[in-house]
Design goal:
Length: 310
């Protein structure tokens, strides 16, 4: 794939499909939606609207950072604050599938549908890639973003037409296009992050307090491990407690798991053999988070484990 020819072709296709209409897309800050955002704005200019939905499940400072980064690229992004709506939808849920479903429904049936209606857009640009389609068709993954491939007509169901400019590319192709478009390294080479965001890393109920804990642990893990070049690294909050000692007193505290893996496409993964001193430093920092008194390193490859815990 020649990134220049790919981009030129997609810009022409998007313009031809949208004509003088309006298009909208949701930016998550991942490489796929970032590339789609730039393609859309280069193709359509003011006929393109981009929103970033703050679902309360993001990493530290992520919504503001991404909006600022795109502003610096000359792309306006509307930040939609839907934190209360997502937290409400997740309230009391502990089953992994129910949690994922609640996030998908809140996004597509509530927040995004409302944004599309308010904008008057009839076209939705989406960052679906080839691997998403293959894995969904094979039944490996329940991706929410490939409606038509699983027999849902978005025109009928939601009143908009979906345009998927990246559906012939795999991740390496998307990254090549991202570099060609001039997206900064921190986006083009970003490690994978799941759609359900930090909710995929909280076993049990997702609450504001538990999100704050896993968010703080995630920031530590990302900072400590970014130089390793590992495929993906993350922190998980378990739904269990263990006895520990803090300030000379017994404390029934929380447990955080650190995971770091090597993989090419996340279908299979081995565990990174991290140096002991890095692990000890991470453990020290994570157990300094209020309420956390244990930190574990997960040695399980995929399979039998998956990457995420939910
Ligand atoms: P699992 O946990 O299934 O994850 O071994 C494999 C890879 O996919 C990411 N992942 C997701 N990505 N939406 C996404 O866009 C999701 O719902 C989702 N669940 C998992 C995960 O981070 C890993 O890279």
């Amino acid at each position: 794939m020649d990134p220049r020819a790919f981009v030129d072709g997609q810009l022409a296709d998007i313009r031809a499909q949208v004509g003088d209409g309006l298009a909208i897309n949701a930016l998550s800050g991942g490489v796929d939606s970032s590339v789609v955002t730039l393609l859309g704005h280069r193709a359509l200019g003011r006929q393109m609207k981009t929103i970033f939905v703050d679902n309360a499940l993001m990493r530290e400072d992520e919504p503001r950072r991404i909006v600022r980064l795109f502003a610096d690229l000359g792309v306006p992004v509307d930040l939609v604050d839907a934190r209360a709506e997502f937290l409400e939808a997740l309230h009391g849920l502990t089953d992994p599938e129910e949690k994922r479903q609640a996030i998908t429904n809140t996004f597509y049936r509530e927040v995004f549908v409302r944004a599309v209606k308010e904008s008057g857009a009839r076209f939705l640009l989406h960052g679906t890639i080839l691997t998403d389609i293959e894995e969904t068709v094979a039944g490996i993954k329940r991706q929410h973003n490939i409606l038509s491939q699983i027999g849902i007509d978005p025109q009928e169901a939601y009143g908009y037409q979906v345009i998927e400019p990246l559906m012939t590319l795999r991740k390496d192709g998307v990254r090549a296009v991202a570099r060609h478009l001039g997206l900064p390294r921190e986006i083009a080479e970003r490690i994978p992050f799941p759609g359900p965001a930090l909710a995929a890393r909280i076993v049990g109920e997702v609450t504001e307090e538990r999100l704050a804990t896993v968010r703080a642990a995630t920031a530590i893990v990302e900072e400590e491990l970014q130089a390793t070049g590992a495929f993906q690294y993350l922190a998980v909050l378990l739904n269990d407690c263990a006895t520990g000692i803090r300030h000379g007193r017994r404390e029934f505290g929380q447990i955080v798991v650190v995971r770091c893996i090597e993989s090419t496409d996340a279908r299979q993964a081995t565990v990174t053999r991290l140096p002991w001193d890095i692990l000890e430093r991470i453990c020290g920092r994570i157990t300094a988070i209020p309420g956390v008194n244990r930190c574990l390193y997960d040695l399980t490859p995929k399979p039998p484990a998956t990457v995420e815990y939910v």
